[in-house]
Specification:
The chain has about 210 residues and is α+β, with helices and mostly antiparallel strands. Helices cover about 25% and strands about 35% of the residues.
Length: about 210
């Protein structure tokens, strides 16, 4: 057994106070996102964990890349027939989480996912490198395959088939947009007295702001 009880650090890089936050969470998310980006931390600042309730009734989390965010929600792309895509289709209640270790920050988004328009999916797919486009076509995401070679050989066949030709977006691949219902911002603070500010969507399209105990 590995005892990790002595893994500790003091969080002292910033603070999150009601006197310095906007009325809606997207503005604060935008501020934090670009502060982390400007800080120059390692890794991908747009990496996020998407948690869903699977068809087997179990929650499952995986890291994907956020590709766009606005007042309307948070967009990422996937194979709709993947385990993740099927789970969202069956139960659109999802959770997104961002952990930015460099600035000792975490954001948790609870919301409802739905497919983006085909235009949005087409535009993003068209912006991808050809290799990524073909990868989306060749990979039957989450399905059991016999070997790595199986994927690579199928990719070579597609490369030959589409050489010099436009590569269309497959119907089973596209975007999901998560409309936030609740957004929690966590800022690490000394002595485990962390700052936690929660925004909850109201029926009049405003946001209720609460401070949570650490």
């Amino acid at each position: 057994m590995s005892d990790l009880s002595n893994y500790r650090k003091s969080y002292e890089k910033s603070e999150l106070l009601e006197t310095n936050i906007p009325e809606d969470p997207i503005n604060l998310f935008n501020r934090w996102f670009h502060e982390v980006e400007d800080f120059g931390g390692s890794g991908e600042v747009n990496a996020m964990t998407v948690s869903t309730i699977g068809l087997d009734g179990f929650p499952k989390s995986r890291v994907v890349l956020l590709k766009k965010f606005s007042e309307e929600g948070f967009i990422f792309y996937t194979n709709y027939e993947s385990e993740k895509g099927k789970a969202i289709t069956a139960n659109p209640n999802v959770c997104l989480s961002f952990f930015w270790q460099e600035m000792e920050r975490q954001v948790i988004v609870k919301g409802i996912a739905q497919k983006t328009s085909e235009i949005i999916s087409d535009n993003y797919f068209d912006s991808r490198p050809d290799g990524s486009k073909l990868g989306a076509i060749v990979s039957h995401q989450s399905e059991v395959i016999p070997s790595r070679t199986f994927l690579e050989e199928n990719l070579k066949k597609l490369e030959a088939e589409f050489e010099g030709k436009p590569i269309p977006r497959p119907d089973n691949w596209g975007g999901f947009i998560v409309t936030p219902l609740q957004v929690e911002f966590w800022q690490g603070r000394p002595n485990r007295l962390h700052d936690r500010i929660r925004y909850t969507s109201q029926s009049d399209f405003s946001w209720k702001i609460d401070r949570l105990s650490s």
